Amino acid sequence: MEIMVTKVKNAVLLLLIMGIGFCPPLMEGKEIAEVNVQQLRKLASKYNVTSLLVFGDSSVDPGNNNVLSTNVKSNFPPYGKDFFNARPTGRFCDGRLATDFIAEAMGFGETVPAFLDRTLKPIDLLHGVSFASASSGYDDLTANLSKVLSLPKQLEYFMHYKIQLSRLVRHDKAENIIRNAIVVLSMGTNDFLENYFLEPQRPKQFSLDQYQNFLVSSMSHNVEVMHRLGIRRLVVVGVPPLGCMPVVRTITNQITACSTTFNRAAYAFNAKIKLKLAAMEANLGLLTSFVDAYAIVQDAVDNPTAYGLRETAKGCCGTGLVEFGETCKGSTTCSDPQSYVFWDAVHPSQNMYKILAAKAIQSVAQDILS
User: Fold this and answer.
1) What CDD domains does this protein map onto (predicted)?
2) Beta strands 52-56 and 182-186: pairing type?
């Protein structure tokens, strides 16, 4: 952890030197969106939504990393404190993830299972799975640094999923399930926090602006692969405000406010993702939706009482300032995680994921199911 802190401090200096010429606007406070489950399920039925398929990083990994030879895991307490039976599953959260709440709202069960879960049954494949791997990113180097599943590797497992699904329900029905699935892609955070701002290789090759373009190009290439494999409905989740994460605020000595420098990097990247997504929608014939995780989390941090939250500057695990993953293992926790924006020093709480899920469902209903 000390090495990481030192590297990120050096990265802060690098960012300050490079600079980015604008500040992201702040959102005004809004009430939490109420999800009309009955209406959503009617829409899902009307548009023949068959399942929820998930690719990404720790924001949507329900436990695939549990079976990998990596140190990036969370299948131990206090993770899972608010999950069913207080069971740690490999989710980097006290409970469920946003994708779990989305699946439940659509009537696909209370959770999205991990594809690599050894207890997964063939019947579980019907309503969707997650191929996500904590610490992954759009840059393959990001995943390789932590020995986790890169996005191309996740797509390789998706092809295995297609084969298994075809054996279960016949090829034509399997293709129909995939064509009408809602597919969620959520990553990008680790490309900055665990790669560009920590490791020397990419900053030697790219300016920050060039690296963002490199990530967007990688995202675009992988989405084209998804399209060739039959995916037609894609939800892309933007990068959250990196400078509001407790660990970033701690190491940049910004305890009373989010780090503007890190937030600018995230905001600029999201803007490029949105532009590329619009172009791919036109060129490939995809139905797409962008979930602005930046705006949602930033608004919760700025206006916590509007969301029933209280603590915005630190996580619930340990001191709440630096612990996540292995350093959170066995730590004491706050008594009321539901009032915290962050569960650990990096990842949102279950309650924050509920808020993200509600906003995501609004986006999907408006952009894809209309």
Assistant:
1) SGNH_plant_lipase_like
2) parallel
Q: Can you tell me whether residue 55 is helix, strand or coil?
A: strand
Determine which one of 94, 100, 292, 344 is catalytic. 344
Q: Give the H or E element holding residue 276.
A: helix 260-284
Name every residue whose Cβ is closer than 8 Å to that of residue 70 and which is 6 or more positions away in sequence.
135, 146, 147, 148
The rounded distance, in Å, linking the Cα atoms of 346 and 55 is: 19
Q: What mean pLDDT comes out for the span 238-264?
A: 95
Q: Is 218 a catalytic residue?
A: no
What confidence score (pLDDT) does residue 35 get? 66
> Does 3 reside within a domain?
no
Residue 58 is a catalytic residue: yes
Catalytic residue among 59, 135, 136, 347: 347
20 located within any domain: no
Q: Which of 51, 58, 136, 150 is catalytic?
A: 58
* DSSP designation for 24: P
**What CATH number is associated with residue 161?**
3.40.50.1110
Q: H or E segment at 318? A: none
Q: What DSSP string describes 310-332?
A: -EEEEESBTTSSS--GGGGTT--
* Phi, psi values for residue 336, rounded to 5°: -135, 70
In this structure, is residue 102 part of a structural domain? yes
Q: Each residue of 45-74: pLDDT tens digit?
A: 999 999 999 999 999 999 999 999 999 999
**Residue numbers of the domain that contains 167:** 37-368
Q: Is the pTM of this model over 0.90?
A: yes
Q: How many domains does the chain have?
A: 1
